[in-house]
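Protocol step 4 of 5: obtain the predicted structure for the target chain.
Materials: sequence only (see below). No template structures provided, no constraints applied. The aim of this step is simply to have a reference model before the mutagenesis design in step 5. Sequence pasted as it appears in the construct record:
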Amino acid sequence: MPTDMTLAIDNNELIVIYSEESSIGKQVIGYAKSSESKVNLINISEAGLTGTQWSEVADMLGASIDELVSKDHPDVDDFAKDATLSDDDWIHFIQNNSNAIQKPILIKGKKAMQVETPSDVLQFIDVDSAGLEKHPVGDDPEIAPNTDDEQQV
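Step 4 output (structure tokens):
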């Protein structure tokens, strides 16, 4: 049954649209939870999206509805591989076959991305490298002792 959620245009919330039947979807959840943003998980296997919401998602991705479907994945019905359907028919197909969406979709504010590999999430949420302080290229690193009686080798 579709959820009543409207897609948020909020830079502080990360929406993850995924199918629990997708191995990538399960992995993406862990990466998404590392985000400092509020995470809104939408498992389309349990609560799908309305047709309007699927259209909005496709528009945000700059894709057609049928491009959201993982047509070459072995879990997706062979019918989808060569089908030529209207957007409404593709929406009905997705709503009745949640495994058709093997690649999770991330939305944060006005940005959206369909994930190819789980680590794509890190780039999308802009995670810094292990919390290290960034310095412009060419600057010398600070190597002075930070504490008294510190011996540097």
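Step 4 remarks: The first strand starts at residue 13 and ends at 18. Confidence is low (pLDDT under 50) at residues 1-5, 128-132.
Proceed to step 5.
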